[in-house]
Amino acid sequence: MAAGSLAIQTRGLTKVFGAQRAVDDLAMQVPAGSVYGFLGPNGSGKTTTIRMLLGLITPTAGDHDVLGHHMPDDLTTALHRVGSLIEGPAFHAHLSGLANLRRLDAADARSDAATSEQRIHEALDRVGLKPAANKRFRAYSLGMKQRLAIAAALLAPRDLLVLDEPTNGLDPQGTREVRHLVGSLAADGITVLISSHLLAEIQQICSHIGVMRAGRLVAQGSIEELRATQTARLTVVTPDPGRAADVLTRRGLAQVLVDGDVVTAAPGDVAPEDISADLARAEVRLRRFAVDRPSLEDLYVSLTGEGFEVRG
Amino acid sequence: MRFFRSELRLIMGRRRNQAGLVVLAAMPVILGVAVRLTESNPRGDGPPGFIDDIVGNGVFLAFAALTFELTLFFPLAIAMVSGDAIAGEAHSGTLRYLLTVPAGRTRVLVVKYLGIVAGSFIATLTVTIAGAVAGILLFGTGPLTTLSGDQISLGAGLWRLLISAAYVAFGLCALGALGLFISTLTEQPIAATVALMIVTATMWVLDAIPQISWLHPWLLVDRWDGFADLMRNPADFGTVRDGVLVGLAYIVVGLLLAWARFDGKDITS
Lengths: 312, 269
Description:
The structure holds two protein chains of two kinds.
Chain A: E1 6-17, E2 20-26, E3 29-31, E4 35-39, H1 46-53, E5 61-66, E6 69-71, H2 75-79, E7 82-85, H3 97-107, H4 116-126, H5 142-153, E8 160-164, H6 172-187, E9 191-196, H7 199-202, E10 208-213, E11 216-222, H8 223-228, E12 233-237, H9 241-250, E13 254-259, E14 262-266, H10 272-281, E15 288-292, H11 296-304
Helix pairs in contact in A: 3-4, 4-5
Chain B: H1 2-13, H2 15-37, H3 51-54, H4 60-71, H5 73-92, H6 94-100, H7 105-139, E1 144-145, E2 151-152, H8 154-183, H9 189-207, H10 238-263
Antiparallel strand pairs in B: 1-2
C-alpha cells in the first residue's frame, strides 16, 4: 500500500474505558478509492474506532489522519469531506425527513446556502426517499430511516464515507439496496469504510478488509492478499488409504493424515493434476479427489471465533 | 446564522414548547380575570406584586404577571429549553451527527445558548404583551400611578414595562447559562431540566433564610423582582444594575463550565 494515498491511517490508536481496552494499538490503513470492510463481532471495538476516527471520542493514545488531515487539529477541514452513518440513524422525530436534512445542512458552516435545496433533493433522490420527504421521521420505516441517514451522509460532495453497520436491522431486500448504493458510490471514486459483523453481507462489494477482535485489528489487507494467506487442503477418499498416503508422502506433501478411508494433506505448491497422476500410477482407486481453499468466511470465523463470547 | 435560525425553528416547532408558551400567556389572563371578579374586595396594603395596582391601571397586570411567573413558570420554561439543548440532542442521538457534519463543538454551544437567550426573550415578551393587553381590556388604562404615589404618562409606563421585561429575560438568560452547563453533563434531558429546577428552588429557599443574608446578594434570583424599583419616581436603577452584574457573572461562569465540559467530552450516545 502506497503511503501517500491513504484515506484513513491510524497509528497506535487506543481507547481505554475504565479497565477495558476497547480499542488497542490500532494501525488501520484504508487506501484511497477502496471499499474497506471493517469486520468484527459486536463489541469488538468497531464503533469506538469509528467514533475516534470522526473525532467524537478522544483517543487515550495514538493518533490518526483522515483524508491526509491530522486529527483532531484539522477536524473541521477533514470532516467536511466525510459523510458518516454512526450506530444507526438518529433524527428529530417531530421533523420531516426533508426538514431534518435542512437542519443538518444549516449546521454545516461550510455548506453553501444557495445550493442547499438542490443538494438536499439530490441526496433524497439518490436514496429513493423523495416521495416520503415530507413525512415526519417518526412515521418512517426502519429502512427509510436508514436511507435518510445515508442521504444525510451524501449532503455535500464527499471523498470518504464512513458507514457503521448500514445494513443493521434491514430486511434482505434493504440490505441488497444498501449494497447496491454503496457499490455505485464507490464507482464514483468515493472511498468507503463500511463496518459489519457479517462478512457475507459486505464481502461482494469490498476491495479491502480489516478484522477486529477484542479491540485489536487481527487481519487487514486486500481481499486477494487475505485469500492468499489461506492454505489449501487436499482430500482423497479411497478404499486404499494406506497406499494413497504413501504416494502423497513420497510426493513431499506435508501433514498427511489418514482417517478411515479419508486421506488429507497440504498440497503446497504441487499441482493437483500431478498428484492425481501419481495416484493413478500407483493404482489408487478414488471415490473423491478435491483441493479446497477455505473461504474468506472460514478465515473470518477462525480469526474472530464463533459462539457467544462476551467481553467483560 | 442559518444554524441559529434552524435552532430557533427547532425550539419553536416543538409542541411542548408551544404548549408551554400558551400556558405562560394564560397566566396573566387568569390573574386578570381573578382580580376583576374580586374587584369589590377592600384593597390590602401588600407592597410589590402590583396586584392592588391592577384595578387602577391594566398595564400593572403585566408587571404582576412577570412577578408571579418568576418563581416557577419562567425557570421551568428555561429548564425545559436548556435540557433539550445538549442533553436532548444527545438523547436522540442527533448530537453525534451535528458534530460530524461538522458543526464544530464551540459553534454548537454558541448556537444552543443563543437559542436559550431567544427562548428567554420570547417567553418574557409573550407574558408581558399578554399581560398588558389583557390588563388594558379588563381594567382600562391611562397615566400610571407609581409606587412612590405620583403619576407618570402611559408612554413612560410602557417604556419602563419593556425595560422590566428585558431585565427579567436577562435574568433567565443567566439561569439558562447554568442550564446549558447542566445539559452537557447528562444524556437525559429530563434530568437536566429537573436539576436546573432544583438549583432554582434551592436559590429561592436560601434567599428566604434571613440568617444567611450575607449570601443573598450572590444568589441569581435575589434581585429578580428588582424591576419593581423601576416603577418608583424617579426610576431607581440600583437593584436592576446589581442584578445585571450578578447575572453577567453567572453567564460567564456557566458558559465557561459548559465549554470546558463539552469541548473534550466523549460523545458515546
